[in-house]
Amino acid sequence: MEIWSDPKTMRKQHPIIAERFPDLHPPFAKQAAVLEANRCLNCFDAPCTAACPTHIDVPKFIKKITSLNLSGSAQTILDANVLGASCSRVCPVDVLCEGACVMHRYNEQPIEIARLQRFAMDSFHAGGRKLRRKYLGSRAGKIACIGAGPASLACAAEMAQQGFAVTVFERRELPGGLNTYGVAEYKLTASASLREIELIEDLGVAFRFGVEIDPEGLRRIDREFDLVFIGVGLGQGHGLKIAGGDHSDVVDALDFIAAYKMARITNTSGKVAVIGAGNTAIDAANAAMRLGAEEVSIVYRGKRESMSAFDFEYEHAKLEGVRFLWQTLPIHVRADGGTLEVLHCTKVDDALRPISGSEFSLPCNLIITAIGQSPLLSLLESAKGVTLDKGRVAVERETGQTRNPRYFAGGDCVNGGREVVDAVADGKRAGTAMARQLEAAYARF
User: Fold this and answer.
1) C-alpha span between 152 and 211 (Å, rounded)
2) What average pLDDT does range 157-168 have in this prediction?
3) N or C: which end of the chain has fewer CB within 10 A?
4) Backbone dihedral region of 107: left (phi > 0), alpha (psi from -120 to 50 degrees) or beta?
């Protein structure tokens, strides 16, 4: 499905999309934020900080909110996570910082860390503040970041803050990767993602959009830049490899989400089947419900306990009205006169083998696939000296450095598809290591 329209529309939320996708977790008012911040025990060895992949000093930023030092609170967040605003909205805090909160030990609700983080960051943005530089002036060394997703953005920000010249290459018309195009609108709007990235651009980071990096383009970058960070994420979603699976009304979940975020789609009618049971499948199913679908069914070949989506995402989908068909395998898409009508399915046993005689027909007018993405093998394999491990870029964990000392990598192309905050952590670690390497290299001259 072609999803492109004018990308500038993403800088302002479409009124229909705004109405149907209000904040899942509305921001705190000032008084409520201060009250919640005062609940924090300010643990010395805070498990919430340890649970955060970017290791934000949670007690410190929350303590500053109690005295309404919101600038100081935001700066504490940004020192660890340059995409602190986005992460406050999209992080699965139930299994990270809030899941580790000591309040659980006392049978009390955990501190609402994410909403407090958003409160501080919203104030930072509303005040027109800028990211602070760690080095005044410019340093020798040119860095290229391939991809403009969270990992590359974190790496670019770290390098620019330390005085290095950074250029980010992105195939799409706007930066942000999944933050801009692929996160459910009720979690993070595209406009909020882009507002945050403007701060990185203000550091002097150059963005080149609409640039598809192929092997030859990578060789040009290799000649022009001292160091290269690969943050390309993953490639196309896996298609539905069954008869009729190439029908025009069988669409990829990320394409579907991007389409409504761009207001290319503002309503969905009829019945929808979503194939897969990960977090992206949940986001797509919830979106279809909010866009007006008559019925949305998630079709998954496994059992409830084997779905990869977080428990809280599953519970949310049930509240949205999504129904789940467990141990169900699609076998054929039927279209009558070109119009998609039915998804033929069969039930499977615990070994995922079809059960004879269990076939049934699921009426549907749209099928959304969320069954994983392929790595960008052609590009990654062309990177000189970069090795792959099961389709992922192999790196040194502490630095993000590949076997080629001039190449670093992070994000989904390394971890296979984790959270935004993991990508940010990868990018910051790599940026720090790259800065040290350039400092050492140019100190010899």
Assistant:
1) 15
2) 97
3) C
4) left
Q: Which residues are bridge partners to 230 per DSSP? A: 146, 409
Query: Do the domains 250-369 and 142-235+374-443 match in fold?
Result: yes
Q: How many CA atoms lie within 13 A of 66 on its CB side?
A: 13
Q: Which of 10-14, 132-136, 190-194, 280-284 has the lowest mean pLDDT?
A: 10-14
Average pLDDT over residues 427-440: 96
Residue type for position 205: V
Radius of gyration of the chain (CA): 23
Which residue has 């079809």 as its token pair? 354
CA distance 322 to 286: 7
State which H helix or E strand residue 298 sits in: strand 295-299
Give the CATH H-level superfamily of domain 250-369. FAD/NAD(P)-binding domain (3.50.50.60)
Token output for 40: 């924090």
Tell me, rounded to whole angstroms, the distance of Cα 429 from its chain centroid: 18
Find, among 178, 184, 186, the residue nearest to 231 by Cα: 178
pLDDT digits (tens, 9 = 90+) for 59-81: 999 999 999 999 999 999 999 99
- Pair of tokens at residue 53: 């992949």
CATH code of domain 22-126 = 1.10.1060.10
Domain range summary for the chain, segments of one domain joined by +: 22-126, 142-235+374-443, 250-369
* Predicted local distance difference test score (pLDDT) of residue 378: 85
Q: Domain spanning 142-235+374-443 has what CATH number?
A: 3.50.50.60
Kindly indicate the confidence band of residue 306, based on its pLDDT and cuts at 50, 70 and 90. Answer: very high
Question: What confidence score (pLDDT) does residue 2 get?
Answer: 34
Q: What is the mean pLDDT of residues 364-371?
A: 97
Q: How far is C-alpha 206 from the geometric centre of its chain's CA atoms? A: 22
How does DSSP assign 314-369, residue by residue?
HHHHHHHT-EEETTEEEEEEEEETTEEEEEEEEEB-TTSPBPTT--EEEE-SEEEE
Considering only CA atoms, which of 1, 12, 90 is closest in space to residue 262? 12
CB 69: neighbour CB atoms within 10 A?
15
